[in-house]
Amino acid sequence: MIADDDTSKESEPSKGPRSRLCLLLGGARSGKSAFALHLAARAGGRVAVVATAQAWDDEMRARIERHRRERPSDWLTVEAPTDVGTAVRRGAEQADVVLVDCVGLLVTNLMGHGEEPSRHVEERVDKEIQDIVAAAGDTDCILVSNDVGAGVVPPYPSGRLFRDLLGRANQALARAADQVYWMVAGLPVEVKASGLAEHWERDREQT
To answer: From the candidates 67, 113, 120, 199, which is the catalytic residue?
Structure first.
């Protein structure tokens, strides 16, 4: 089980009777990946990382290598630019916790890096998100995603499409998640895991 932040619960077993889905949102350099590593390590047991990044250029290759160095050497890495749900299932077969980093790059990959987005990309993103949620039901899963809706409106159509696709994906994942954290300057702000969040979801369903 992905541990709660309440230190009074640290004596509980790391694996509970049901899996938990935790979503971490944040902007660039907000500390979301570092917090995800912390949660995965604290959960105990074996960890599998599903990495969605692709080495398009030297900068991205350097970022990928930096992330690899930040992870413990005994963690399993599954590279999956797309079809992340299948990768989560593969990771769950060999690990107790699966960490997906990140959903934003998954959406970028589905749109096509430097290419004209497919007119079917919205359906592809929806299918990927549904498959991730289904796969995460069988394991403790931590999802990292970018929060892209708080900045200026992107000047290009592809940028606006990315913002819209990822925003809807984040909403779907947040609805399915047991825990949601928003990272601000390296600090995790709990968004969902309280009665207020549950009341908000019930009110939305009733309207």
So the answer is: 67
